[in-house]
Amino acid sequence: MNQTFVAIGMLGAVVAPSALLAQAPVASPFVIDVIHSRAPELLERPRCDVYAAVPYSLLNFVELDTGNVAEYTLSTIIRDSTGRKLVDSLYRRTIIEDEIAVTRGSTGAADNSVRRYRLPSGTYRMELVLRDVFGKRDFSISQKIVVPVFPEQEASMSSVMLVREVEQRGSRYAITPFIGDVIWSKDMQLFAFVDCYVPRGIPRVGLQWSITAPDNREVASGLGEPVDLSGSSTQAFVPLSLPQRMLPGTFQLRLRLHTLDASGSIDTTSTLAERSRTIIIPRSSSGAVLSDLAKAIRQLIYVADQADIDMINAGATEAEKLVQFDDFWKRLDPTPSTVRNEAFEAFYDRIEQANQRFKSYTEGWLTDMGRVFVIYGEPLQVDRFSTQSGMSVAIRWTYPNNLMFTFEDASGFGDFRLRTPLPAGAKYRYRR
Description:
By secondary structure, the protein is mainly beta. It has three domains: about 1-150, Sandwich (Immunoglobulin-like); about 150-280, Immunoglobulin-like (Sandwich), CATH 2.60.40; about 290-420, no CATH class. The protein is built from six helices and 23 strands. Helix 3 packs antiparallel against helix 4 and helix 5 packs antiparallel against helix 6. Residues about 1-10 and about 15-25 have low confidence and may be disordered.
């Protein structure tokens, strides 16, 4: 049973009660988003909504009568530029899940919550400490936050929130937030969601979005539908479309608020307000492996067909080869809704173990023992014996279903050669 915090969330929209997928960058154990918006009463301090996504795989679950249970606490401390503590809060969350596999991260589920604070415009330091109650482990995040000014007589917008789903409910929307900056799949549908604050006299506006690379090159852009304004604050969103061949890196998502021209189209020559946020397209493969992409591709002989390898090598540049390489491993990902690709990790972990354990005349992964180890993993039984001639030593590896491989050291120098042919089409297959 997935439980998710339900609240009147960012921008006054309802946070839809469904457990989100864990959107966890490699560097952070859990993920947060900080969204700033103008308070309904203009004289009050701006709102600061802190969203947190805690992956189930981070927590220790214990089996109780009610199911598999995890508990954690999350403390939030916010200090101003002088170090003075303005916020010191703590809350506790309980998660109950029936399926053990889900608690171990098989679906990428995360527990999501939001807490709202009121802060004057300015710069702050926020520290969050998550404590896994049963696992007795602490995880922390510290980051600078800047609360913007929302001028009363000028057009402005709230922070940009990434959203998975948007459902209209009367004049407001129910939203399912996507928490964090890391876009782990370019196939998912995402929306950019904001509150628009526009002075009286402008009946309709439109949103333009763009994504730019670090060199300011625009990689994607689009326009939303015109929005009818109502009152001092109006919710608006635009669907985002990420290029399939978007390379890993850190990008800027920019949202611009425009008036409409006489024909009712968005007039991009006149900008009322602008907001931006970082989005990250991660490498779906380990940087250590990809330090030598050419070798990583050669090592695919134990998992890929030759046609797949030829397609990857057909890339005109290393960047194009990397895209094809990542696409290949995405097809084998047992949990495509999460950042991790367990099949990839297990395969290259075996490559590394083979290099450490079976190196002789060449790298360990190229030896006969290394090849069998990478494809089949650790044998159930290892037997060492002398051959019938008594002139050499042999080793037999036994796997499930009575699958056996015999290696012989005919040279006497530890160069064990495979004497049992591999089954036709033998390839690495990920198994949990």
